[in-house]
Write a structure and sequence with these properties.
2 domains, 3 strands, elongated, DNA polymerase, domain 1, mainly alpha, hpI Integrase, Chain A, 302 residues, 13 helices
Amino acid sequence: MEKEAGSVALREPIEWFLDHLQAERGVSPHTVSAYRNDLQGAAGKFSSYGVKTWEELKVKELLKYEASLGPPLAQTTAERKLSSLRTFLKYLRKNGMEVAVDLPSVGGFKKKKLLPKALTREKLEMLLNAPKLSTAQGLRDRVLMELIYGAGLRVSEAVELPLATLELGEATLRVTGKRGKTRMIPLPSVTVDWLRRYLLEGRPAFTVKPIPYVLVSDRGKKLLRQTAYDILEKHKKSAGLTEDISPHTLRHTYAVHMLQGGADLRVVQELLGHESIATTQVYTQLDLAEVRKKYERAHPRP
């Protein structure tokens, strides 16, 4: 019978690693819990294969473990478990443990990276014009969309945006994103105009008490992430659009339109707050069909 988490020699390094995640890397309790479940499950498997310590681990046991992660286990779950184990083994090696093997490639578990779904300019305008701009709610909803599309913000960045970060005279925005990284974002003049109008005509209707955030709920509280999703769903329907549209769709659309307009990939990376250029690079694939059409029209050979 497979043991829950293997021998003490397998379990203890897992606890060291989890302590490292909490104390030195400051990861969330949810992430620590996920690592704990993944690594204890792996240790239990390796124990059932006869492995007593992490130093004893060989390629054959790793391959056997990888094979155990096939169907009916969800592909995303298998990928996460392999990623957790790879990170853990690297940690052990970095801290002086003689781990002789690396985790094999995810191989068949590696899923194709899905391309973002960007709105056409026509559909984007239909969505942006859907709110009733004669109401405070309509102005607030338009500004929510302007911040995500006009400035490329994540939904969490938009709803957490403090008033103090607005520099409307300079048409810029200071945003603190993932891992506390701050970036300055230039604002289109249209977005600045909508922000000014909302701050004068819309926001005061919600703010009975002072609140430091730009976006305010109908009850005068900070706008919630889920409310932002609900707002977009509501206006998508009123605009007669049928595709899935989320805040992330608007952020994707911002990136794609920037690149189509000739923006440098590194500039878009900085504006989006991506740590890796590889994350931004996926957007370049969206233009391949358009590039091919231009190539076929321009190239002298048929």
